[in-house]
Fold:
Amino acid sequence: MKLVKSLLLGSAAGLIAVGGAQAADLPVKAKAVEYVKICSLYGAGFYYIPGTDTCIKLGGYLRAEVGLNTNSIYGTQSASPASGRNRLSNYYTMRARQDLNIDTRTATEYGVVRTFFDATFSWTTGGYQGTGSAFGGTAYTGTLGLNTAGASPALVGSSINPTDGGASGGSLGVYYAFIQFAGFTMGKAVSQFDAPWTNYPGNNFDGLVGGSGTVTGVNQFTYTADFGQGVTASFSAEDATAYYQAGNLNLSAAAASGASAIAGLTTGALGANAIGGSRSPNLVGMVRVDQAWGLFQASVAAHDNHVAYYGATEPTGHPDDKWGWAVQLALSIKNIPTGAGDTINIQGVYTDGATRYNFQNLAGSTYLMYGSSGIAYQSVAAVAAPDTVFINGGQQETVKTWGFRGAYTHNWDPYWNTALYGAYAQAQFGNGAKTFLCGAGGVFSSVAGVTSCNPDFNIAQVGVITRWTPVKNLTFSADLTWTHVDQKYSGVIAGGNNFPVAKPAAAYELKDQDSLTLLLRAQRNW
Structure:
């Protein structure tokens, strides 16, 4: 018994010794866990990145929506194939989109260093592009463009599955990516020319004319001075190539043949685009006054129109560069007597050789729309507003435009609001272009059946949107928009084939056109 007791005590002592040796191998004190801390310097939602003095905020939204009577969700029936209004046009276009933005800020002896990134991941219904005999079926793409009259429709996608610019993978869009430091903004951000509401004085619809709106950002190098009392001023050099090229057209191409002239009247192709390489960024200046009652902003911009050659080779010569310009005024009035939170946003713009500051890139400056006719096979309105036009051996002539847009938003209660909005824009060609196209013996006026010839046109838009927010950051909306194209041609002409909208060679009446689109959206912000 004594032997058993001795063995047990010896074993226990050995285990204690081993346990002591293992404990001695462990750190005397565990390393403290570094928890994420709230950063209150820049508002709600910011946190310190562990181990740094940099604050970060994550945000974004998830959106599900459908556009009715359009192929582009947010736009009108202004381009093929939606404008054909036949079996190739979409009755609906659906989209699912996730937006992610990352905002970082660090306090330094020179002020706050900020970086901002915003990207979207989207999947969108495709649109008809043509029939390919090699596959015996249709092809779809997320990028919709008008094919040249008489050209074969391009087959996009594989023989197995249609695509949406990336098949089931969808598409990626980089909206903003910029650095801000000591008053400078460097990278892709909203243009300093734009009003604070960009394209949206009260709407969801993207295609409003009557002002500038780079909602997906533009590369820029900007300095902003803050004078206090809500007064700021900015000077900016901004990339012109992505969103500010409305076109520099060589009208001589429209005179190549009678068929080309007819195509111009039925597709809006006034000539061949001859944009040259980039030479100068757009130069932008802006002054803004922000007060409790609202804001006022004045913007100016200069745009260099640099074109290529009259012909295909250098010895054919070229026109000189022509600088265009634009000026815009914007006004916002808050908390008007009709109700708490009610607002009025309005802006007006004038451009001379800088069309995109009025017909912004999401609205476009080319409209092609077909409709019914009581005296011909169908009717058509085909108009375009480039920055400049020229003819072989001549100099550039600017296209002048003016327009406005605005909205009144009324809050019925904390959950419901409605906005009425509208826009208008007018494009006017110079005497040289009108003489060449529509003068005696002109390219278009000589087409049989044309009774009135004028390339000028107007766009008018009216819409209404109602939003319901049953819980914070979750909104359902319905946005109805009417667009009217007021073109200045008249007559009945013998039109040719215009791909890819399946129009036959027949008689077409030159006539104004209308479009009605509805955008339904559900969006959850976070």
Remarks:
- The domain at 59-525 is CATH 2.40.160.10 (Porin).
- The radius of gyration is 30 Å.
- The longest helix spans residues 2-25.
